[in-house]
Amino acid sequence: MDQDGGGDQVGAEGSGGDAFVVLRPKSPGGFVFASPHSGAVYPPEMRADPALAEASLRSAEDALVDRLIAPGVEHGATVVLARLGRAWVDLNRDPADLDPALIDGVADGSVSARTAAGYGVIPRLTGDGRALYDRRLTLQEARDRIARAHAPYHAAVADGMAAARARHGEAVLVDWHSMPARATQGVGGARGPDVVIGDRHGASCGAELSRRLRRSFEALGWRVALNQPYAGGWTTQTWGRPSDGFHAIQIELNRALYFDEVARAPGPGWSRTEKGVARVIADLLAGA
Question: Exposed/middle/buried for 227, CB within 10 Å: 0-12, 13-18, 19+?
Answer without folding.
Answer: middle
